[in-house]
Amino acid sequence: VADFREQLLSCAGVDPARVVEFSCGHVIPPENILPIILCSGPSNQQLEFTYQTRDLPQMMDETGRILRNLCNVVPGGVVCFFPSYEYEKQVYAHWEKTGLLARLAAKKKIFQEPKKANQVEQVLLEYAKCIKRCSQAGGQMTGALLLSVVGGKMSEGINFSDDLGRCVIMVGMPYPNIKSPELQEKMTWLDKTMPRAAGQAPSRVLIENLCMKAVNQSIGRAIRHQKDFASILLLDHRYARPAIFNKLPQWIRERIQVKPAFGSAFAELRKFHRGKSDTVMQTREEAVGHL
Questions:
Q1: Cα 81–Cα 86–Cα 91 angle in degrees, nearest 5
Q2: pTM (2 d.p.)
């Protein structure tokens, strides 16, 4: 909201006293969401997906270990967002080479977001069918894992409600491409015309805001109605920095836990999903009893 207030209204000479902001809480009860900022993985590798570090094999390995552990405790669908198609492809190829992909596929069927818009519906249909089949059949396979991309087709306008998205994972921070000529022009213009905010250059604030808007849009895909529930996992210690943390929606901020180590995060996730699975089973049994 700050972007619109400062760049659109203040610049046009609108008196700040005339601008009224209103926001309200989310429709779901707070116990139906478990958001976690994870600072390090199962082998104590610090999670920081900067352009300099995210291509390192140990970072891609650690991401795979996290997903493998989660797929053991999260029923239904897991949606994992990557910052770009290129990075998702790179990680997928690395997991294929190391054998981690096969180990993941033994637990959940893996789907990838297609780049072509006309293929999205088919992938989503297969993903939903797989989750429904697994929940009815039981056994070793416990649903599906969808590898998606921030700013792609799956991060906007598609609902991963109920079993389609019991856990949403955000790998790193999806900062926009600052080499884009359009963005470069906007950054230059803001730094020339806008005052610094809390010691930060206006261009830096813009980049952070674009990143966090994309994050918030993606992680909100899983909670779509009052009785829905999901866990949200932000993989990068930078999410705990106050400037970034405060740009998460209030309904997530109020419940979020910052976990320096993977062990305690995993214990929380296991407890949350076990408790919710028991509740779902009980509700289904009661519904059958009424028929």
A1: 65
A2: 0.90
Burial of 140 (0-12, 13-18, 19+ CB in 10 A): exposed
Using an 8 Å Cβ cutoff, are 137 and 203 in contact? no
Contact (Cβ atoms closer than 8 angstroms) between residue 107 and residue 143: no
Residues with Cβ within 8 Å of 83's Cβ and at least 6 positions away in sequence, in order, are: 49, 149, 150, 171, 172, 173, 174, 175
Burial class for 105, CB neighbours closer than 10 Å (0-12, 13-18, 19+) = middle
In angstroms, rounded to a whole number, what is the distance separating the alpha carbons of residues 143 and 228? 17
How many whole angstroms separate alpha carbon 218 and alpha carbon 150? 7
What are the structural domains, with CATH classification, of the chain? 32-290 (3.40.50.300)
DSSP β-bridge partners for residue 134: none
**Cα gap 175→28, rounded to integer Å:** 29
Query: Would you say 223 and 26 are in contact if contact means Cβ atoms under 8 Å apart?
Result: yes
Residue ranges in the chain modelled with pLDDT below 50: 287-288
State the DSSP code for 14: -
Q: Sign of the CA dihedral 280, 226, 250, 187?
A: positive
With beta carbons less than 8 A apart as the criterion, state whether 114 and 203 touch.
no
Strand segments, DSSP code E, in 66-221 are: 76-82, 109-112, 143-149, 167-171
Give the model confidence (pLDDT) of 94-103 as tens digits. Answer: 999 999 999 9
